[in-house]
Design a protein that fits this description.
The complex is a heterodimer of chains A (174) and B (527). Chain A is built from seven helices and seven strands, in the order αααβαβββαβαββα. Chain A has 174 residues and is α/β, with parallel strands linked by helices. Chain A has one domain: Rossmann fold. In chain A, strand 1 (49-55), helix 4 and strand 2 form a beta-alpha-beta unit. Chain A is globular, with a radius of gyration of 19 Å. The termini of chain A are far apart. With 527 residues, chain B is α+β, with helices and mostly antiparallel strands. Chain B has two domains: 3-122, Beta Polymerase, domain 2 (2-Layer Sandwich); 212-310 and 328-526, Cytochrome-c3 Hydrogenase, chain B. Chain B is built from 18 helices and 15 strands. Chain B has a five-stranded mixed β-sheet with strand order 1-2-5-4-3. Chain B has a three-stranded antiparallel β-sheet with strand order 8-9-10. The two termini of chain B are 39 Å apart. The relative contact order of chain B is 0.12. The model of chain B has no long low-confidence stretch (mean pLDDT 90). The chains are: A alpha/beta (174), B alpha+beta (527). The interface between A and B is large, with 52 and 56 residues. The structure holds iron/sulfur cluster. Residues 58-59, 61-62, 96-97, 124-126, 131, 156-157 of chain A line the site of iron/sulfur cluster (SF4).
């Protein structure tokens, strides 16, 4: 059995492909920003800055762009920023979407579960003030009325570059 | 025989009294029957047309005619028509006989009608609310009634939701959500398991409910269009297109060929980036990270291409009522050719990576099986339906400009994760071909992009086969061009139920994989 596996992998050879085009497609500015970001995170947050994301009624495009920040092109992880599965591991809460009535409690609980010091960042027009849904009967209102928000990343949705830039700007001052 | 006669004959055969039968558009037939005949009529058409309930919704017409109207919508694939069966409910009656006992696919719709309009589906075994959660929303406030005013805040204490319970020795529950481990929408999954296998999965949704159908009321079409692009971000284009189609039908606009071509070009681009996303997601959920990352780059490449074409990575701002706002000239066309040649190569490499890995295939084969029979009963739509053997693709039923392109409808029959993956692989190839041919046709096409028409009232249905499945938008405009009522159905609304059946007997660790293979929309479902 194990012999056949070995044979199989030898026969197949290397399956990974060199992704040389990847970095070249990125504006050079992002490398510089990133290196600066890395330094800031290194000194201020003990090497890594962890973010927990919560969707309080988003359309999903904001999530898609946040996920894109971790793809091999932007690879935000290499600068020390990571998205974590539990609020217990997080330094910051990243909120998308207008706050729907159903999500209000979950949002508060997620925030409470985070250890101090903690920050709340909003992402996208919806999270700023409800965006185009602000007059709905089911939208509670801006995240900043529920939690102390320290940074807003504008856009509908903000692109990965916008997100990375905004995080850098924020970390630089804080 | 024309469609009206055909339907008239079916209903006549059971002595159902037809109050009115009118062909409003070539592909939309409205039949009004007595409340007492409604269930029988729907049941008959459901069987004879072999159609699940595609939409089922209410409309508050008390101001004009002291009634609520109820529409149950079926699809006649053979004659390429939508059939709206309507009954009128007197405003003081507030109930109707449930269809759900005979037609499962009506069940969720009835619960929705109940919570939004306060019309009781008598006989529906499940009356729990879907979107207005008991914890935060008091009883007897029905948002989609015209005289709705928000609930009074202070008196409400909050009630609790009752999950279905599986009982017995050794059975335990695993609650997950609404906030998940990943970066994803909000939903609650309640697993009941004995040992490893899942015995029951109850999916509670509605967390991201934003009251979109109400927000749309009173809006003009331009404002509404912006909202449509924000219903489900990954289908921003599909939604705006379905909405525009509905409005164009009402206004009687035949949009220029060029904009028809540009629309399907964008629709196929949307399909491509989402399929790339899911192929990668499926790999990621079995821990096969190289192809997952590789796929994320394909998606990124297409998003960047989108941005280059229209300034938006999610193709927002392209559609407008009467056509499209952005043209694709020779330069942009070259851009697409270049990008897609690369994307095509990458897709082939990705497919190769996945299908040649024995351990990967072992995880996806025979995992999360949704059988044809179940899929039919539930009314599963789109991609997931095709993977279970339901040969339905709206691009074939209502082809429009697609008529100019030959493409094969993807179909599988095993209904497992592998089948849903294979559907994506073959749709990717077809989409790439369609785009290619689109570009060729654009060259020879007149430059006209947009049509304008007289303001007009009326109602119509828009339908687009977006990447997940058909997005349906029914709109009623008043004479001032404002929206009176709008009903939206995302394929996810039907398909979430499919997921809860597909996971049965699978182990909980395979749930993310099953889930990703469906990749349903939270926001499109919750509205
Ligand atoms: S800001 Fe825009 S992209 Fe983000 S959740 Fe809201 S509608 Fe979607």
């Amino acid at each position: 059995m194990s012999l056949s596996i070995l044979k199989n992998s030898l026969k197949k050879g290397k399956v990974t492909i060199k992704l040389d085009f990847v970095r070249s497609a990125l504006p050079p500015e992002i490398e510089e920003l990133g290196q600066e970001l890395k330094k800031t995170i290194h000194t201020k947050f003990g090497r890594s800055f962890h973010i927990r994301e919560v969707d309080t009624g988003s359309c999903g495009a904001c999530e898609s762009e946040i996920i894109a920040c971790s793809n091999p092109l932007y690879d935000i992880q290499r600068f020390g920023i990571d998205f974590v599965a539990s609020p217990r591991h997080a330094d910051a809460l990243l909120v998308t979407g207008p706050v729907s009535k159903n999500m209000e409690l979950a949002l508060k609980k997620t925030y409470e579960a985070m250890p101090e010091p903690k920050f709340v960042i909003t992402c996208g027009h919806c999270a700023l003030d409800g965006g185009i849904f602000k007059d709905s009967y089911y939208v509670v209102g801006a995240v900043k009325e529920i939690l102390p928000v320290i940074l807003h990343i504008p856009g509908c949705p903000p692109s990965p570059l916008t997100i990375i830039r905004a995080l850098l700007g924020f970390l630089r001052q804080s | 025989m024309n469609h009206s006669d055909y339907v008239g004959n079916i209903l006549g055969s059971e002595k159902i009294n037809i109050i009115d039968l009118s062909e409003i558009y070539q592909d939309e037939l409205y039949v009004i029957v007595d409340s007492t005949d409604f269930v029988k009529a729907c049941h008959l058409l459901h069987k004879r047309l072999d159609s699940s309930v595609m939409m089922f919704f209410a409309e508050d017409l008390r101001q004009e005619s002291q009634i609520f109207a109820l529409y149950c919508v079926f699809l006649n694939v053979q004659s390429h028509t939508w059939l709206f069966v309507r009954q009128n409910i007197a405003q003081d009656k507030l109930k109707f006989d449930s269809l759900a006992k005979d037609i499962y696919s009506a069940s969720l719709f009835e619960r929705e009608i109940r919570e939004m309009f306060g019309l009781e589906p008598v006989g529906n075994p499940d009356m729990r609310r879907l979107k207005l959660h008991d914890e935060v929303w008091p009883k007897e406030y029905y948002p989609l009634r015209k005289d709705f005013t928000g609930p009074k805040e202070d008196s409400f204490k909050g009630a609790s939701y009752v999950f279905k319970r599986v009982e017995g020795e050794g059975i335990f529950e695993v609650p997950v959500g609404p906030v998940h481990a990943g970066i994803i929408g909000s939903g609650h999954f309640r697993f009941s398991a004995a040992g490893e296998p899942i015995i029951n999965l109850e999916i509670r949704l509605g967390w991201t409910h934003r009251g979109i159908e109400k927000v749309l009321e009173g809006k003009d079409t331009n404002d509404a269009l912006r909202i449509f692009e924000c219903i489900s971000g990954d289908t921003a284009f599909g939604y705006s297109m379905a909405f525009c189609q509905a409005i164009e039908k009402i206004l009687g606009l035949n949009i220029p060929v060029r904009s028809q071509l540009l629309r399907i070009l964008c629709l196929e681009l949307e399909r491509l980036y989402n399929h790339a996303n899911d192929m990668g997601g499926i790999a990621l959920d079995v821990g096969f990270s190289f192809p997952a990352q590789f796929a994320s780059l394909i998606k990124e490449a297409i998003l960047q291409l989108n941005e280059g074409l229209c300034g938006s990575r999610y193709l927002k701002g392209v559609n407008t009522v009467g056509g499209v706002k952005q043209d694709i000239d020779r330069v942009k066309s070259g851009l697409i050719m270049g990008a897609l040649a690369k994307v095509k190569k990458d897709f082939i490499a990705l497919e190769e990576m996945l299908f040649s890995s024995i351990s990967f295939m072992d995880r996806v084969d025979a995992t999360g099986v949704l059988r044809l029979r179940t899929a039919r009963d539930l009314g599963i739509m789109g991609l997931a339906g095709r993977a279970s053997g339901i040969a339905l693709d709206m691009r074939k039923v209502f082809p429009g400009i697609y008529n100019n392109f030959s493409f094969k409808m993807a179909k599988e029959h095993t209904g497992d994760v592998a089948a849903r993956l294979k559907i994506r692989c073959s749709e990717v190839k077809e989409s790439l071909n369609i785009i290619q041919h689109c570009l060729e046709k654009l060259d020879a096409c007149s430059p006209e992009l947009k049509m304008t028409g007289e303001e007009k009232g009326g109602f119509a249905l828009g339908c687009v086969e977006a990447w997940r499945g058909p997005v349906l938008v029914w709109v009623r405009l008043n004479t001032k061009g404002k929206i009176e009522r709008c009903k939206i159905v995302d394929p996810s609304f039907h398909n979430w139920d499919g997921l809860s059946f597909a996971v049965l007997g699978n182990i909980i660790p395979d749930f993310p994989l099953c889930n990703k293979s469906f990749d349903l929309s939270y926001s499109g479902n919750d509205l």
